[in-house]
Design a protein that fits this description.
This protein has eight helices and ten strands. By secondary structure, the protein is α/β, with parallel strands linked by helices. It has two domains: 2-110, 3-Layer(aba) Sandwich (Cobalt-precorrin-4 Transmethylase, domain 1), CATH 3.40.1010.10; 115-219, Tetrapyrrole methylase, C-terminal domain (Methyltransferase, Cobalt-precorrin-4 Transmethylase, Domain 2), CATH 3.30.950. Helix 7 (165-174) packs antiparallel against helix 8. It is elongated and about 55 Å long. The protein starts with a strand and ends with a strand.
Length: 222
């Protein structure tokens, strides 16, 4: 029995690998966060719809159903809405449970797009060591994490939303952050934009804009 962990495009649908497409065509079922979202990808490549929803709110009954499919020898692919499953994504929970319950299960990675790696690759900052915070808290603990980033000797990466980016930059300004920052907006999509500079440089670029989309923030190590 095989559970494939497949990275899917973070924006541009042509960024998927030939191997990923081959696996998606061959498996019996595709587990996805949002079946409607994944169907756009499957339809784009003329892959028949065999999707099953699996997300952070899936109950034990759904998880048991998925494990039963695997135990009966069905090959299953796990995808997220965008990027690599298990990275700021509930996929790691399913992998852990499946490995515990199914003795002969083979979990196979099909690597590909990942927003944090894409952002690091264009940052120009040291990437031999870095720390990834995922989505930082919206309220409680938010400032504490930004304080850690301000003091960190490592390149730091986190995800942010358009309606909180200004708040985040203002907190970093209050913390007197002097490090260089790269803000990647809508990576690989039509309106992809990459901003570079200090907090003081970037705040005016973010203000007075109806900022939408997904942001990946990279802050230099020093």
């Amino acid at each position: 029995m095989y559970l494939y962990i497949i990275a899917t495009p973070i924006g541009n649908l042509q960024d998927i690998s030939a191997r990923a497409l081959e696996i998606l065509k061959s498996v019996d079922f595709v587990l996805c966060e949002d079946t409607r979202h994944t169907q756009k990808l499957l339809s784009f490549y003329n892959i028949s719809n065999k999707s099953i929803s699996y997300h952070q709110h899936s109950n034990q009954r759904k998880i048991d159903y998925i494990l039963d499919l695997l135990s009966k020898g069905h090959n299953v692919a796990l995808v997220s809405d965008a990027g690599t499953p298990g990275i700021s994504d509930p996929g790691n929970k399913l992998v852990s449970l499946a490995l515990d319950k199914l003795e002969n299960l083979q979990v196979i990675p099909i690597p590909g797009p990942c927003a944090l790696i894409a952002a690091l690759s264009v940052s120009g900052f040291p990437t031999d060591k870095f720390i990834f915070y995922g989505f930082i808290p919206q309220k409680k603990g938010r400032r504490k994490i930004l304080e850690q980033i301000e003091k960190s000797s490592l390149t730091s990466v986190f995800y942010e939303s358009g309606h909180r980016i200004n708040k985040t930059l203002n907190i970093l300004l209050e913390l007197n952050l002097r490090k260089k920052i790269v803000i990647c907006r809508e990576l690989t999509k039509k309106f992809e934009t990459i901003y570079r500079g200090t907090v003081e440089d970037l705040l005016p670029l973010m203000k007075d804009k109806a900022l939408k989309g997904e942001f990946t923030i990279v802050i230099a190590n020093k």
